Amino acid sequence: MAQPAPIPRGVPEATVARLPLYLRALTALAERGVATVSSDELAETAGVNSAKLRKDLSYLGSYGTRGVGYEVEFLQHQISREIGLTQDWPVLIVGIGNLGHALSNYGGFASRGFRIAALVDADPQRTGEEVAGLKVRHSDDLDDVVKEFNIAIAVIATPAHAAQAVCDRLVDLGITSILNFAPAVVQVPEGVDLRKVDLSTELQILAYHEQRKNGAALALTAEQAVELAKAVGG
What we know:
The protein has 234 residues and is an alpha/beta fold.
């Protein structure tokens, strides 16, 4: 079974997590016809510190040219190759509810090296339903689906209560790269790479920051009121 190519040894996980940011920035630059970019410009586009960017790229053996910077097209290809995006990764989505539908219909995966190859759901009423040009298969067929499409990466988009069981089954079938969208904590054995996307948690973090901004605004207004009262009373 095909698996995503490993990042070179010695590359910190934090660096690996930032490589897609650099690739997205480079893709945007390439689409604008930019041939070379300085580390400062690339860092600003990616939203990171320039020193951190230079350190990250040095792990890949890319140091740029003094006074010129980085060749956009070459660095774009280099990062794509290192994180395995020059290949065609067949992806399975398990759970074809609203989120599963949305992920299945997202057109941006193909241009980034990912192909939605199969869809699976436990609801027999969804079996045979066509989503994004693919027929939904029943979860009873999961073993056959993984083998038939040589699945490399699985996406869990099931309800929370089903996530762990689905994950366990995927691992048993040899899937070692899993992206979990279910709002549940999922445990995997050593050797399995699990990434979690928790939309509710991210919204809660934004709510926290929004509340703090509102609190700061209220505090400022109160301070202004005090100054105004002093001025009037004085």
